[in-house]
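Long-time lurker. I teach an intro course on protein structure, and each term I like to show students one example going from raw sequence to a predicted 3D structure in token notation. This year I'd like something fresh instead of my usual example. Would anyone be willing to generate the tokens for the chain below so I can use it in lecture? Attribution to the forum is fine with me.
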Amino acid sequence: MTIKNRLAMTVCLAAFAACASADRAYKISPAISTADLSTEQTQWWSGLQDPLLNGLVASGRDSGLDVLIAETQIDENAAFTRTQFARLFPSLSLTGNSDFTEFPDGSAALRLDWELDIFGAVRASVKAARLRGLASEAVVADIRRLVSSQIVATYIQLRARQVEAALARQSALRLTESLDRIERLSNAGYATALDLTRSTRQLNEVSSRIESLRGQERALQNALRQLVGNNDDLDLLYSTSVAEDFTFPRPPDVTPDPDTLFDQRPDIRVAILTVNAEAYEQLSARRSLYPSISLQGNGVLNDSQGAPLSVSGISTSLIGSLVVPLIGRGRLLAQIDAENAQADRALLEYEQTVLGVVNEIDTTQAQLRANRAAADEQRKALEAAAKALELSNRLFEAGEISYLDVLITEQSRIDSERAFVLAEEAAALAWVQYMTALAIE
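-- Reply from a regular --
Happy to contribute to a lecture. Here you go:
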């Protein structure tokens, strides 16, 4: 059975379980553990074997602004959970008054209010709040996954621009030497003004691309700074030059495991926990139709006209009340309908998330294979273009071809060099997207 079929079957089983009983919808999680959402596995970007990149990713995951903003939601949900949990307990208040006259008197009163959660409406709200707290932790994990991907992708794009600039500078040197050679040949009558003009145009185009690449490089450096935050390693990006023989690494392929994919994708965890939370919200809304029972207790201590305090001056009372909703029942039914709609939406979003993950993995895996094959072919094309340029120079020196043919072959090599860098970049970015889809951290 393919990964697509297995995950699709999981979605169907989850939907069936959720529809069977709203009160038991929290059990639809397909063997997922929420005990520790921060457990990290092998960091896939370490396969690029770049210590600078590893430091940038670690900084972005820990202190990136996107991550820090998301972590505030965890604190907010934790506070809301405590607020809901406090509703399970009584509240106690103290009031007092005094009359400072010729015959002073005063009193102090304790008031106890406690709404008993007989039918579990408050407990359901507490469980829903706790699940939303776990969902916010999963959101942070998902943001870390996406931030890691963005940092690695931006870093690869930056290195690609630096490699492309290095190749362009090599081309500029060759074209400068070629231009000097054409000038000498033109003076000797072996080259035409057209050859000189074509060579000048090639050099100007390469010089223009070098300047453009310099601007793109700075833009990518600033994009990394936005993702990473304050990090001293960023300064190395301004001073580190890429070796001319730099090659993009090719980490081995990773085969997805459908049995562990649900544990790896934080966005799937978010969707599952949201479905569970909505199920408890449904339960809490339905319990609001039931009678509410509350207790009220009062204790009053009177001190009249300066008389000494005594037990006889204390009065207490305890009152129980039962409230059954009658006239406002329509409002409660409307709230239940709203919760049912939100639960249905959460379930549909869960199915959409899982199916989206399946399609994302399938698409990125196919794109990775295609881009790597294209890069292999482009490497062969570059090697052929380099040999063609070497051969054309020998043929020109032998008088077999004109220098125009040499210029055409030189342009072909320049184009092949750029196409090769772009193909290698595309293959590396496809690998980043594939590993991001698998969420192997």
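Some talking points for your students: The chain has one domain: 3-438. The chain has a mean pLDDT of 80.
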